[in-house]
Each structure stands twice: as C-alpha cells, then as structure tokens.
C-alpha cells in the first residue's frame, strides 16, 4: 500500500518517485481497508454510510429501486440461491444486457461466498460454451433472448425478464424460476448453510484478454473489491445522477456501477444497451452530471453537437469519463469547443487491477490532455525496460508495472467447484499465465508502454499487448487467428488493428490460402462472423503468400500494420 505520509523512504512529493527503489507512489490520499478479515463485499457495502435515496433507474421503463429496496432484494435473492443449493466457491454466471437486476444478482451471489462470472450477451453459443467450460458455473441468470444460445446445457436457468420463450426452446433448457419471483420471497434471518466468507476469498470472475490476447478468467477477491469501493468513496465527489452507458459485464461497468457507486449514494440510470438518443434523453430527464463514454461516441457528439444542443438540455452535464481506448488531443479540443462547460476525465485500468490504474479528479488535472491521470490511491508503479528488466526513472518509457490492494492475487486456494478442484487466484486454470503476469513481489505487468512525468501524471504511449479496441470492446487477435487457421482452405493467418475515427480500431486479417484454394474475402469474413460476436468480426481481408514472423515464430505485427495502413487508404 502506497502510504507516502508514513513512509521512511525519500519520495519526491511532486512526482511520487523514490530513487532508492525506482518506485512511483500514488500522490492520492491512501485509504484504509476493513480490519475484520471475515467480511464479504456485500455486507461491507450495505453498511456504507451515504445520503442517497434512489440506487438504480432503468432508463427505458423508468422503473426505480431505492437503496432500501436494493438491500431487501439482495437478502431475498441470497435466500433463494441458498435454497437452490448455491454454496461458497460455486460459480454463478450472469449473461444479460444491463438492467437494475444485474447488481442485485452480483451482490447476492457474492454475499454467499459464491463467485459471480459475467459474459457478453452478444457472444455466440460457441463463445458462451467455451467460457462455461472454463468457469464451470452451476447456475445461469439470463434473459429470454439469450436462452436459445444455452440450448444443450443442462444448467438451471433463472430468467431476468418475463418475455416469452418458445416451447421448442423451453423443452431443451432448464428454467427454474425468475428474478421477480426471487425478489418477492421473504428473506430469512439466517441464510441456510452460509459459509463464513473471508476478504481473501474469490468474489468475481471476469474475463480479460490479458497481455497475450488469449481470453482469461480474472479472479478478484472480496478485498480487491473493497479497495475499489474505498477508492470511490475517498476519491470522488458524489455525482447526483450518472448514466451507465457501459456494459455491466465489463470491469468498468461492474466495478463502477454494480458496486462502486453504491458507496457514494449516486443515482445510477442504466441503459440496457448504448443508444445515443436514449442517453441524451436520460441526461436531460434525470439531470445527470456525469456520463462514461468511449472515444467513438465522443466523436459522434462532436459531429452532431449543434443539432444535439438544439434538441436536448444538457446543462446539468459536468463530466465525461473516457476510457477503454486512446483519446486524441485533437478530439478533446474539438469537444471542448462544442461543450466548454464539460470536463473530460480520462482514466486507465485493467480487469487484473479491479478497475484501478490512473485517473483524473479535478478540472486542473483534466487539462493535461495527453495523460490518463495520476496513479489511483494506494497504488505503486514501476516503469520497466522490457528488454533488460531494469526499473527506469521519471520521463523514461517502459512497461508499466502496478502493485497494491486492488491487484488480483496470485496464490493457491481451494475453489469449491464441482469436484473440488484446486485453482489459482489470479487467472483461472492458468498458473503459467498468472506467473508470467504477476511476479513474486506482487508486481503486475500491464503490457502497456508508459511513462510517468515530473508531476506524477501517467502517459500511455503504446500497447505492448496485442489487443484491438473496437468501440471500447477488446478483440483478441489470437482468438480470430485460431479460427481462421481452422478453415480447411487457410494455411496461415494474422490479425491486426486498423485505426478508424468511427470505431477506434477494427480487425483486419492477412490470410495465406492453401495451395490450389481460392477462398474469397467475403467467404473469410462470413466464416468468422458466424462464430464470434459482432464486435469481433473481421472488416477487411488481404491475401498474402506468407505471414512475416521472427525466428521464434512470433508474428511481426508492426510490419503488417504498416502494410495495413497503406491498404486501408487505397
């Protein structure tokens, strides 16, 4: 924990850098964590003092849930889950669009010491099946629209809506109840067979593409989530109302809106999916002061600013929080010309850091356009030369390493899944990737090329990891390449990002045809589109005789990216 005030180290108060150990310490005020080690995140949150009344509002219907109703619903759903046999260590999957029920489910599951895992409802049956095989859930919360994707699974299902499911589908799945029926149940004073839950027990299992591009399940503890809550309560001036435009299955939505904002008493208006008109209407109707956006949406606001300001009253809006992809200085300036009273607060975080990293808090900090802000409270950082492993100094570029109470832990524990198999708290079922990402001293290697300046601001220069950011969604090239190579007419393939003003980046594929085969560009794209979510689809294909690789077989993506930029301009 980065407690500068109590440290005997010689730390530069301006930059936060300590030359004796080449470590940067957060300049934010450190926060305490609960001394009671037998404590779950839900109990911790429910006792948090604040002055908020309405917890969540569903933008489409206007349905609201107060804080009192929220905690009663959590008690009822926890009781029902216990009656269904859910126990500490069991994994429960929620795969659904945003709704006011999403936080209720997450908090209820974690209250029992079970582990909540999330999935994108846009995922294909293949992608869902792959995640289920890895995480081994014992129960699924989902919507009627997603149920057909679960045909073939024997897992019990709880519906989050009351829409019709055809008899053909219901005959092939096991729907046991609905969330509404659960909430109506009277909670018991003592949940049956509730095991004692400790801060270091696993609480959530969110999937991240990590630093190598392969999808990995990140196990975060109750303590990690408590650190996130404490950061929210100590860092931020509570917003009166905030629009949740980001998916709750992602660490940003999950950490900030399903959990973090409950500590501040903020009224959270939830969009089931992003819709520009619905978002603008919600800002006006609920007098929202803050909205999280990704760069492509910011660009859309700039392009249509004059028309938007004529149609909507956005005078309440004070802050836009922007993350998920790089934001150019030019776009910031263009936005501020159109909306001069709105601050843009950039940030940086990872699933592996439980939503921690760097952030901006004040209007003065927001003016440092090229930066993603200062280190989050209680975080330590190093800038490490990727080639030598040596720690670097102020204004020197290298890989960002982070350490602190929010970092996923890497140690052995007993995960009570079916069969009681041992697992690693870190990346689920992937001890090798965990060891490669977190060293023995607890430093997490982010895979991002960064530097920290004289004033303690963090700058992200480039990604060492091979991820494509399409509208803020992470697209792992390795997954698409594996699918491409599985095609009988393709012998090799590589996928790279192509910059685009509208979407951030889109995937482009280089494909080597097998001898005698003549698969076309459209056939390649159709092959992929049938197997992946829409945001992962390949938008452009180029056929080459070979994929450039180094002597160890690693794809030379930068060489392909230069070629891809030239092709995209044609």
Automatic annotation (TrEMBL):
The keyword Ligase applies. It holds the Pfam family AMP-binding. The keyword Ligase applies. It comes from the Eukaryota. SUPFAM superfamilies: Acetyl-CoA synthetase-like. InterPro entries: AMP-bd_C (IPR025110), AMP-bd_C_sf (IPR045851), AMP-binding_CS (IPR020845), AMP-dep_synth/lig_dom (IPR000873), ANL_N_sf (IPR042099). Residues 479-554 form the AMP-binding enzyme C-terminal domain. Keywords: Ligase. Residues 50-409 form the AMP-dependent synthetase/ligase domain. PANTHER family: LONG-CHAIN-FATTY-ACID--COA LIGASE, PEROXISOMAL OPC-8:0-COA LIGASE 1. This is 4-coumarate--CoA ligase. It comes from Hibiscus sabdariffa (roselle).
